[in-house]
Amino acid sequence: MTFKFELIKECKDTGARVGKLFTPHGIIETPVFMPVGTQATVKTLSPEELETLGAQIILSNTYHLYLRPGHELIKQAGGLHKFMNWNKPILTDSGGFQVFSLGDLRTVKEDGVEFRSHIDGSKHFFTPEKVIEIENALGADIIMAFDECVPYPCDYEYARKALKRTTRWAERCKTAHQREDQALFGIIQGSAYQELRELSAKEITSLDFPGYAIGGLSVGEPKEIMYEVLEYTTPLMPKEKPRYLMGVGSPDNVVEGIMRGIDMFDCVLPTRIARNGTVMTKRGKLVVRNAGYAKDLRPLDPECSCYTCQNYSRAYIRHLLKANEIFGLRLTSIHNLHFLIALVKEIRESILENRFLEFREEFYEHYGEI
Amino acid sequence: MTFKFELIKECKDTGARVGKLFTPHGIIETPVFMPVGTQATVKTLSPEELETLGAQIILSNTYHLYLRPGHELIKQAGGLHKFMNWNKPILTDSGGFQVFSLGDLRTVKEDGVEFRSHIDGSKHFFTPEKVIEIENALGADIIMAFDECVPYPCDYEYARKALKRTTRWAERCKTAHQREDQALFGIIQGSAYQELRELSAKEITSLDFPGYAIGGLSVGEPKEIMYEVLEYTTPLMPKEKPRYLMGVGSPDNVVEGIMRGIDMFDCVLPTRIARNGTVMTKRGKLVVRNAGYAKDLRPLDPECSCYTCQNYSRAYIRHLLKANEIFGLRLTSIHNLHFLIALVKEIRESILENRFLEFREEFYEHYGEI
């Protein structure tokens, strides 16, 4: 199956939209939340559990898999899908965000980025060509171009240089990309400067990728800034291509992102806070680790239909977390991923049924009450 | 359903036997290996996974659950089965082994044992009556009498005193025990002294429990000593009652135990070594964490039918373990429990088909080759 995006419905009041993304490993209904499996595993969960949760596509990280266990081993194993036993779509990021996050451990040059491994300090060099070689070896359905991601805040001149380099690297990625069964997405940068986002959107979309991402958000800026950037950026992205907001996944950010025309999200947040004993509910975050839940025999969220809420109490889950029992981390991870995936599904339905704004209003009615 | 044991078949050459144990939460085919769920969870696994693995009964620990989260909470939750979402049989130990393992943190008196919690140092007192009260609250199908477990080696006089006290405590447990839906098992002590094992067996069996355990083995003695003790002890235990060898679960110990007339086993070994990256195979232990398996794309055990071996390679599992990914611990735990449960099932079939000794011979042909 070749890669294709079908726009099914657009909200008449907002930028929200519903679509279908066709990939070699299956069809993805958008908007979609993609659980993150950094090291070829979505932390604590099995592929079967992810499927039961309704995960349609997962994300994995080029930087991490390149360092450990190595992309050549994964290629030898028949690719990432086979290596990790996940037969649905996968997206790999390019490692751009990760290597730039290394701070002192990396040096940016025109040709690429020199960096030291966070695992053993060994030296490596990522060029756009190298990253594409790695992503081709991993074999995900969607792969991301190598970009320069800047922190927030970032001065104008630096942000401009980084976005111009991101464009040149995107061109090199496109030239280097070989596999027709993998869709290469371009990434729009430009920090929180409207002029720069416009410039980046113009340059990147002119390269005609099958999909586009907005990078450089959720890097420390206030959420109002993120929403503002989305408001002026998504209209510059072609309607007929999927739009992916990288690294975003709190419930309210997802609602707001969809309203502004985003189709795809990924974030470690649901699984990370789960492992710290915090779960997402429609009323906000519930810290089940807290002593107040020690004797609470209710489910995490009485309105939730997930495996965890159907079978276990807050008291049991808290006990597992306090006793350092891994099954507790599984139960909270299941709940949080279910929550986000179900939320996005509900939003999708509300768009199809012309009631997205009503849904959004209801969502905020109780959100944050806890 | 009342508690009942049905002896189905006895091996004509050895003490091995096949039976059925009827409990309120289901029928257990013996011999049986019981996975250990110390803190109301079999480490890393879900109840559904345990069921898929063929676990018929699990063990949980009175000492741990009393300290955390507390037996009263579990009683309030509707008992241990409901609290942990496991609807098949459960056995709870009495905490005897645990409190005696506390060393300096405990003092044995005639009335009971005073000890300090390993969690917060708080002071507690276990009497036979208190332990039965806790076990009644937890609500397992099979509960164990409170015994005094001695280390190995142990001088004769101390071992004698401990077994005499174990008898007096067994009587008190029997008197205190209230629930007809729970079967209370007596425990035979006596260290590695034949005279003392005979004395204990005589005293404990005279109390007419519905089942009997052999305690005080697998506490550091050479395995030849364990086998010797079994050889002279099991013939002193009534044929028509189930026999449980506590804390034993290496593959060869299980084969030898069954040959000497044991029906039930429990042990943390399979799940503990799994979490250290060691898996059980018919050729012995394979340390999948080792660098030699980094690029090995074969399953842990090419002959194994478990979920792990059907879907994942040694290279993938090693990668997960090296990257501290919890899913790796799940995969090795699944494999090891599958291995032991399947081994015991194979032995059961071999007894039913009059070929237990042949099975044993085949078992040893390759065992230990790795």
Count the DSSP helices of chain A. 15
Query: What overall form of chain A do the CA principal axes indicate?
Result: globular
How much helix, percentage-wise, in residues of chain A?
A: 40-55%
The biggest chain-chain interface is: A-B, 34 and 34 residues
Lateral strand order in the biggest sheet of chain A: 4-14-13-12-11-10-6-5
Assembly type of the chains comes to: homodimer
Quote the beta fraction of chain A. 15-25%
For the largest beta-sheet of chain A, the strand count, sense and barrel status come to:
8 strands, parallel
Low-confidence stretches of chain A: none
User: Averaged pLDDT of chain A, please?
Assistant: 97
CA radius of gyration of chain A is 20 Å
Distance between the termini of chain A: 46 Å
Number of strands of chain A: 16
Structural class of chain A: alpha/beta
Write the layout of secondary structure elements.
Two copies of one chain form a homodimer.
Chain A: E1 4-10, E2 17-23, E3 26-30, E4 32-35, H1 47-52, E5 58-60, H2 62-67, H3 71-76, H4 80-84, E6 90-92, H5 96-101, E7 106-108, E8 113-116, E9 123-126, H6 128-138, E10 142-144, H7 156-176, E11 183-188, H8 194-205, E12 212-214, H9 223-233, E13 243-245, H10 251-259, E14 264-267, H11 269-275, E15 278-281, E16 284-287, H12 307-311, H13 314-322, H14 326-352, H15 356-366
Parallel strand pairs in A: 4-14, 5-6, 6-10, 10-11, 11-12, 12-13, 13-14
Antiparallel strand pairs in A: 1-2, 2-3, 7-8, 8-9, 15-16
Helix pairs in contact in A: 6-7, 7-8, 10-14, 11-14, 13-14, 14-15
